[in-house]
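new request in #modeling-help
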Amino acid sequence: SQTIHQWPATLVQPVGSPLSLECTVEGTSNPNLYWYRQAAGRGLQLLFYSVGIGQISSEVPQNLSASRPQDRQFILSSKKLLLSDSGFYLCAWGPERGQEGTQYFGPGTRLTVL
Amino acid sequence: SQQGEEDPQALSIQEGENATMNCSYKTSINNLQWYRQNSGRGLVHLILIRSNEREKHSGRLRVTLDTSKKSSSLLITASRAADTASYFCATGHISNTGNQFYFGTGTSLTVIP
């Protein structure tokens, strides 16, 4: 069966510090991978999605970046965090591009920037 | 924005009652999905309805889709305290350049025992 891992579960970082959140998927190949951010009490905002290794699409301009060094690994990064980067970050995987299906979410990382 | 909107934003009902949540969206879709999120957790997929379907059932869940009105509803029958959670709709867009999903703002459901 497929599983998706995210870490860390919680993170407190000072403004201006770097960020690296990791997401890995098991039990599937060639997944579409996604990063979302959820502000407190709000819906999900799609940040990045990837259809393959090294292929990243950005939905929202921001000081975050994403990379996919391996088929089942998706990394969210920042060189300098802003206060507005605080939120709940969710990684998800979905079926290959062109295929219909649902998304499966990781447990999320709660980031607080102070 | 392609993001959907749910209403109501918050709903409080007694255990045993039915809960209805609505979702509206703006663009054409391939499918629409409903997800559930317990506080501070990841989202769990509940049900997917394709754009050529009008109604779908899964256990105590009933989803309808009206593509002419660009709206969907989620009905939870005979609610239980354990149904307390936030519920999100997401529009699914399939393409060879990458499948995309756009989420609504969510409905917070409280079921009072």
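bot summary: The first strand of chain B starts at residue 5 and ends at 7.
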